[in-house]
Queue: 4 jobs
Job 1
Amino acid sequence: MPVLKNQALEDESFKRCFKLFLSRQVISQAGPEVLSLGKDVLSDQVFAWVTDAERNKPYIKRSGRDAYIPLGLWAINGSKWFSSVTDSEMTIMLARTPAGGLSTFLAPMRKHDPNGTTATGEPDPNGQILNGIRIQRLKNKFGTQSLPTAELVLENTRGWLIGQEGRGIQEISSILTLTRIRSTFAAVGGVGRDLGSHRTSLLTRTRSRRRTQNQNETPRQPSAHEDPSQAVR
């Protein structure tokens, strides 16, 4: 029987994210199943389950993932005083859970809706609507002119819990660190690109000035129809 590749065993980035963003309880429950992925995925038992599920459509509809995954969907309500990059496809936010303490959540900005419409009332070509996120006001700050920043109102926004519940500050600190490192690299790269463009402009201007000076210093040669003795030099 053929064996498929297992990302949990071969991908170092997957291993690190698996341990970093999931709680110990979830890792202990899902760890053995994840490690066995690819070994028996083509077995007769899997094929039989897929065949039975395909014949029984309501069975698939009742087996929602939210009912079985401990870190399933959450409904987030409230307001956000400051939110950056509001035109992105997803967002990471902090919210307080009933258990107490802040937790980190991942939420898409849009969700699927075949009847979704655009801001002008036209049918949305992608069949999507905002994920319970309403932009209340855009921030007018000098530092955020190139980065859309807004105040948001969340109404039953669907999101997934990242990491352990109640440890939102610790979980989002890693994301903030990566964001700052990326911003630093982008700033240094932008400065280097600007310096390179400025240096290229100076070199081009210097060469053009030298070319003009050489043309002015070159004596005028008489044409074939002029008398060489009457030519002005």
Note: The chain has a mean pLDDT of 70.
Job 2
Amino acid sequence: MKKQPKDSFEQGLDLILENEKIFQKFLMKMGYLKS
């Protein structure tokens, strides 16, 4: 069963959200973000 291909906008949005999570983790490791 194949997943329905997303349109490029939705795909880009997913990518941005994923990158933001990674970026926040990185910042917390560096000590810039206090959680």
Note: The chain is about 65% helix and 0% strand.
Job 3
Amino acid sequence: MPRKTIKKLRPAQPYLPDTSPFELLPLETKLQILSHLPRAVAFALAVVSRSWRDPAESVIWSKLSITFPRNQGTSVCETSPRVQNKNLENKRMERINLAFRTRPERIGWVRELRIEPDGDDINHLVDLVEKVGPNLTELRIGPLDQTTSMATDFFAAMMKNYDTIRPFPRLKQLEIGIHKKTSIESQFSDIVHLAPTLTKLTVSGTLSRARRKIDESHWPSSIPTLTRIRILDFEQGCIPLLAQIARSASELTEISIQCKDHSGSWMDDPFVASEDDLKLLRGHEGLRKLEWRGDWQSRYFFERICEDGFDKLEMLVQSEGIGCESETYIENIHVPPFPSLHTILIPCRSTKWYNRLNLPDWAKAPPPRFSISSHTISQLRQASSLLQIQFISSSSSSSSAVLSDAVAVEEWCNKRVNGVLVRSYTHKTTGEEMFHLKRLALKIVQPKIYNESSYQKGYETMKLCTGTVTGTDHDWIDHTSYRGYPIPEDILKRVYHRVKKEKGDWITPGRGLDMPEEAWEVLRRWRGKLPDDGENGTRVMTRSMRIMGES
């Protein structure tokens, strides 16, 4: 009998044929496809395809995170959370080092690195940062919102090798802690040396040493590429530091401040800021957005800083201690006299916000329907470009907000954002003014919408509104003023009837708009029948008046 041929079993190659159209796609196309795929799919492609391996791994390794939970509940018999995290960190580092030894090119693919040191031995993390640093675009060393963290010691440990450490030429975003035992001037010089093209910087730590005058001889002469600075744990004496940053960073466009809670010391400490420092800060030509977050007590310092200047500022984010829906009035908001300011965002809604069913003792009563206080009109005249104020959702974390940019008016009710739209009409000859404010009032509050995770996952399933102008859970309320008196609804309709291509139910704000002479005549005839008390009108008691002791 003929001998049977025995086929030798060979391991099948895991890769697809090299001639497959899927394999022959250009590298740019592969990277675009991978950018829309989950990391698990990218990992699978790296396993089964030779030509997709490098682009897939470049996506997989682009973000590297060594962070662990900080608040773990443990029993007496369990290992402490810090020990658990340290063990997890060691295992994670072993896998990363093994992956780098297996394929050294993976080191060059890391673009974003986030680490949270937790322990005395941080040298291995310092080595990791130095290894991947030349290709990094974002480095976050935290947690910066915990004063007991090792983040403030990490940068000092890393810069011990100042003479040998290579700069990170691609680094654009840096979050770092400032060490309390090293001068702020030298640490900022180290930051500029480490990241010469830095655009966004977040710092935290013990900044109280900035109370003294900054030593310019040890401060970097220029931070040419910095556009955004964010300071956590901001204290009363940090104005010189902020002013020095503004002086050095000519391209600075955004400043974000998170005030440190001193449980009343903001009101006890004097306002410490020299005129030179305030002039540097207020006179920055490139500043477009300012964010000030803090409790009610730090507002006094904020108002002092904003008394003048900031001519080019367009957006302001400020905390106002708004506690419930009935406080979302423009009368409760400090409007700085910035000539270019067009939007004010008030982070106020949180997971606890909707529980405030009763007004606190210091809250004012809502102003009468259709009215605008003389105090508000005075502020609007000084802020001649202000178009809108939005009361937005606030994150449960002190470090960020769910909404950091203005929301389109058409989306206000759907995103459970309410606010005030501002319109003013000016007579070019006589100088007469008519103010018309529209306030979106929410009549139904949805508790889940103020939960950060629920908000980020999507509010589409929770919204109740069917439209912007009309609906069952919200109302657009008009507030008007002409020479100190609110305009009755019938007179307002007659005015807008004479304004061509315009209706009274507008949702587009504007300042200094023109109005036909016939419309002005309607206002004059109506106003001429009323007593001439000037523009004082009805005095409205605001929260700032109540707290500061004004009558």
Note: The mean pLDDT is 76.
Job 4
Amino acid sequence: MAARDSALEVLSDGQTAAPLLRVGHLHAVAASAGGENGGKTARTYFGHFEHQSSQRDYPQVCGDIRTGSVRGEDVPFVLGLPLVGGQPFFPHNYTRRDRMLSRLIIHYIGNFARTGDPNIVPTSDEGAEEDEESGEELDEDEWEDYGGGDGGQEGEIDDGNFIAPHWDTYDAINQCYLQIGIRPEQKGHYRGHKMSLWLNLIPQLHRPGGDDVSMRHHHFPEEGPAYYDGN
């Protein structure tokens, strides 16, 4: 089971995660170059959905607990289906936390669709400064008991109100992204070492050597137990 999961993780990284991260990186670089050349500055936002729905279609096998989500599990939350009991496409009994998370995602996406920024749209200069530092406080009735309730941290209850964390822009250096789950959290360098395998090491192995390197440098001996068995 562990070997299977490891193989699937490696293949998923190479076929899905790394290409998506590469696209985001190229978009961020192009947006930065456009702003430096006097063009309209575009912004790139990176998010990772890690919530495990209470009504997921991928049950644990033989008691083997796996964390994280499966590709496509975010779709019902983006569409707001937990808010209507999953009808008409996903008739499931979503929990209160599922509904609260769906509200949070719609909050971000709605703001992004209207303004190009998933965070709150300030109504004054004073509000802009406050919201940039602490995020948007949502109604107590909407966010009560969501996220644990320790208070004082992003993504947790603070004095009865849920504070939606500020979603920072993604750039080629800091590589900030928002981990979207029961406790939303701002992080950086998504799976850095594992993504580096596909985005840096393997592409470098495919590059040709310098002109001063002889082709014989890349040749293996025809026979040698250090390379393969047989004659």
Note: The longest strand covers residues 176-180.
